[in-house]
Specification:
The structure is a homodimer of 424-residue chains.
Chain A: E1 3-8, H1 16-31, E2 35-40, H2 46-57, H3 63-87, E3 92-95, E4 102-104, E5 113-116, H4 119-126, E6 130-134, E7 137-140, E8 145-147, H5 153-164, E9 168-173, E10 194-196, H6 197-202, H7 204-207, H8 213-222, E11 226-230, E12 238-241, E13 253-269, H9 274-284, E14 289-296, E15 306-314, H10 318-332, E16 336-349, H11 359-369, E17 376-380, E18 383-389, H12 393-403
Chain lengths: 424, 424
C-alpha cells in the first residue's frame, strides 16, 4: 500500500467521458490498496471561457476577482470527479483550495503556496476516501481566494505530496514520459525511465511541455518522487528523482529552443554595472532574456578595457530589444551593436558529464563532422548549450543523439507503483 | 444615506450585457450616497448546465458534491458583477457564502441559514465598497459548502438585510411589483404600493411567482422591509412591510389557483385520528394537500356521529389521491368517496377585513349576481377562499376586482429609497 498523489490537467478532464475514464484509473489504484489524492485542473476550455466573460466586462479585470472567477473551474471538476468515483463504488470527497486548506501568499493570479495543513485530507483518507483536490488555487491568510497562475496544478500536486509524505506524485499528461529529445526531430528518441530533478530543470525546453518548472523545483527541494505519465495510455512514464537514486547515464537528453535571436554589444567599456545598464531596459519591457555571455575584448586601443556582451531573446522580441540596446549602447559609449535572428539553442543535458571530462569535446567534434558552425557556447555543471543557425537544428540534434547513443536503453529501474491496467 | 440589500435573480444576470446594466443600477444607488449589498444568483441556464453534467456522471449524485458543483454558479456571477462595478468606478468586493460567512445547517441542497456574521461585510462597506454576495449558498459548521436550494437567493438577501440592520431589502424580478390580481385575467389589475407580510403569504399563488415564501416569512419575522421591483424598468415596485406601517385597504388583492381537484369522504365515523388516517397515506406519497375542510354530518342514523371530510390537491394528483383515499375510507368504514377535478380556488386577501364585517357577504353576493356556484368556503383572519368550477375563474375574479374597487389607487406611501433613473 502506498500513498499516491495524482494530477490530471485540463485536457485529461475535458469532458464527462474523460472524467469517467480518470475515475476508472483512480479506482484501479484504490482496488490495489493504495491511498489516492487526486489533483485536477479546470475542464479544458473552461478557463478560457471564464476569462472571455471577464474581458467583456473589463479589459483589465482586478486580480482578486479574477481569482474568485477562475477558481470555479477546478471546483466544478472536483465535484464531478468525486461523483464519478462514487458512481464506481469508490468513496470520494472533494476539497477546494480553502477547504484543504492550501495557504498561499496574497499575490493574486500568481500566488505561491506558503503551507498546507494536511489534517483534513488525512482524515478523509483514513475514512477510506479518495481525496479530490482543486489544483491551481489556495487561500490567503486573510481568507481571500488565490490562484497559483496557469499550470499551477502541478505545483499543487507536488506540494500536497510533500505535505502528506506521499510515496509518489504522478503527473498525468498527453505524453507518456520525458524523451531523450523531441521524437519529431529524432524518430528513435527514447523515453527515459528516470531523470534527475536537475536534468529535468536544465531540459526546460523539453520539460516545459510536460511539467511546470516550479513544480520540478518544488519536488526536488522536498525530495518528492515525481512521475510523468500518460493519462489515456498505460505505461510507467518517466520518474524524476534525486540524483543518487539514478543509474547515471552520461547524457540524459538533448533539449533545443528554436526561434531565438542573438544580440551583441561590441566594445563596451568594462565598468561595474554594464550588464544591468544593458539588460535593465530589456527586462522593463518584459522581454525575456535566455543565454547571457560576456567576453573580454581583445581591443586594447583605448585607456580602459573593453568587453563584448551577448545575450539571446525570442525572435519576436528581436527588433524591440535591438532598439533598446542601441540606445543603451550609445549611452555607454560602446562601439557597435550586432545581432542575428533565426538561431537555435541546442543543449546536451546529463548529470553524468560531471565525471566525464570529454563530453564537450565529443559534442564539438560531432558537430564539426557535420560542418555545423557553432556561434556561441555556454556551459553549466550538467549542461552544454550551443547556438547554431536554425537550418542545422535537425542535423545537429540527430548527430548528437547518435554520438551519445541515446536510443540505447540503460539499466531499467522500476518503483512498482504503476499497476497494470485491466485489459478486458 | 441608507443601507440597501438588493437581490438579482438568474434571468437578471443572464448575460454580460445584463450584468453591465445591473452594475449601472447599483452604481446609481452608490452615487446617491447609499451603502449597497448585492446578492446574485447564477447566470440563467448555468445551474441547469451544471446539473446536466452531474446527471451524466451519476443519476443520483450525492448532495454534498452537488453543492460544491452548483455553488460555482453564483461564484462566477459575483466575480463578474464586482468587475463590472469597478469598471464603472464603483469599488466592489465579492463574497462567497463561506467568505461572509453565511452559516447554515448541514442539510445539503436544502440547507437553512443558522446565522450570519456581518463583520466582514461591514468592513467592506465601511471601506466604501459595494459588497457583492453569492446567493443560495452557505457554509456548515464543519466547513462544508451548502446550498439553500433553488430560489434560496431571496432568503439570502433577507437574512443579510436582517443581519446588517438594512433599511430595505429589494428583490429585483421580471415583474414590476405585486398586483391586485393577475393582469392577464383582469386588465385593470393595479400594482400595489404596499402589502403586509401576512397578505403576501396568503397571496402565495400570486406571490410565489415573485418571491420565495420562505423569504417573506423570514422578512416578516425580522421586520425587514422588503420591496419587489423590476430589474430593467424603473419604478417603485411594491413594498412588503409590517401591518402597522400600511395604509390599510380592506382588500389588497385576489389570488387564485387553477388545476385543483377536490376529494370528499362522506359519512366518516367521527373519531380522533381520522384526519391523520385519511391524509397520512396522501402525504407519504408526496401529494401536496391545499385546503382541508371538515363538516359535521347531519346523518344521525347510526350510534355514533358521522362527519364529512374534504380536501383539495393538484389535478395531476387526483387519480392517485382518490385511490389512496378509497382504501383509507374503506378501512375507516366511511360511506362514500366523491371528488371532482377541474376546479379553482379564488382567495380574497386583506388585513382590513378583520375590521370590516361584511366582506364575506359582499363577496358571496358579487358571485351570486353572476350565477357562480360556490362549492367550498374556507376562511382565515385575513383571507376568504372559495372553490368554484374553473370555467367561472375569469368571471369571478373580475366581478370581485370590481366589487372591491381594486383598480382604484389608495393613498400613496413612498419610502424615498428608489432613486429615479437617469433618462439620458
Amino acid at each position: 500500500m502506498a500513498l499516491i498523489v495524482q494530477k490530471y490537467g485540463g485536457s485529461s478532464v475535458g469532458s464527462v467521458d474523460k472524467i469517467k475514464r480518470i475515475a476508472e484509473k483512480v479506482k484501479r489504484y484504490r482496488d490495489n490498496g493504495d491511498e489516492v489524492v487526486v489533483v485536477v485542473s479546470a475542464m479544458g476550455g473552461e478557463t478560457d471561457r471564464l476569462q472571455g466573460l471577464a474581458e467583456e466586462l473589463d479589459g483589465r479585470p482586478v486580480a482578486r476577482e479574477m481569482d474568485v472567477l477562475l477558481s470555479t473551474g477546478e471546483q466544478v471538476t472536483i465535484a464531478l470527479l468525486a461523483m464519478a468515483l462514487r458512481h464506481l463504488g469508490a468513496e470520494a470527497q472533494s476539497f477546494t483550495g480553502w477547504q484543504v486548506p492550501i495557504v498561499s501568499d496574497d499575490a493574486h493570479a500568481k500566488a505561491r503556496i506558503q503551507r498546507i495543513e494536511p489534517d483534513n485530507l488525512r482524515s478523509a483518507l483514513d475514512a477510506g476516501n479518495v481525496a479530490v483536490v482543486a489544483g491551481f488555487q489556495g487561500i490567503t491568510e486573510s481568507g481571500e481566494i488565490s490562484t497559483l497562475g496557469r499550470g499551477g496544478s502541478d505545483t499543487t500536486a507536488v506540494a500536497l505530496a510533500a505535505a502528506l509524505g506521499a510515496d509518489e506524485c504522478q503527473i498525468y499528461t498527453d505524453v507518456d514520459g520525458v524523451y531523450t529529445t523531441d521524437p519529431r526531430v529524432v524518430p528513435n528518441a527514447r523515453r527515459l525511465e528516470q531523470i534527475t530533478f536537475e536534468e529535468m530543470l536544465e531540459m526546460a525546453s523539453l520539460g516545459s511541455k510536460v511539467l511546470q518548472i516550479r513544480a520540478v523545483e518544488f519536488a526536488g527541494k522536498y525530495g518528492v518522487p515525481l512521475r510523468v505519465l500518460s493519462t489515456f495510455d498505460d505505461g510507467p512514464g518517466t520518474l524524476i528523482t534525486l540524483e543518487d537514486q539514478v543509474e547515471e547515464p552520461i547524457i540524459s537528453g538533448i533539449a533545443f529552443t528554436k526561434d531565438e535571436a542573438q544580440l551583441t554589444v561590441l566594445g563596451v567599456p568594462d565598468r561595474p554595472g554594464i550588464a544591468y545598464s544593458l539588460l535593465g531596459p530589456i527586462g522593463e519591457h518584459n522581454i525575456e532574456v535566455d543565454m547571457i555571455l560576456q567576453n573580454v575584448s581583445g581591443d586594447s586601443s583605448s585607456d580602459y578595457t573593453l568587453t563584448d556582451f551577448t545575450f539571446t531573446v525570442h525572435s519576436r522580441d528581436f527588433d524591440a530589444a535591438k532598439e533598446l540596446l542601441e540606445k543603451s549602447a550609445k549611452e555607454l559609449g560602446a562601439r557597435e551593436v550586432s545581432g542575428q535572428s533565426g538561431i537555435t539553442k541546442v543543449s546536451l543535458v546529463g548529470v553524468g558529464m560531471r565525471s566525464h571530462a570529454n563530453v564537450a569535446a565529443r559534442m564539438f567534434k560531432a558537430l564539426s563532422d557535420e560542418n555545423i558552425n557553432i556561434r556561441m557556447i555556454s556551459t553549466t555543471e550538467i549542461k552544454i548549450s550551443i547556438v547554431i543557425e536554425t537550418k542545422y537544428l535537425e542535423l545537429a540534434v540527430r548527430a548528437l543523439h547518435d554520438e551519445f547513443e541515446l536510443d540505447e536503453e540503460p539499466q531499467r529501474v522500476d518503483s512498482g507503483l504503476t499497476p497494470t491496467a485491466d485489459q478486458d
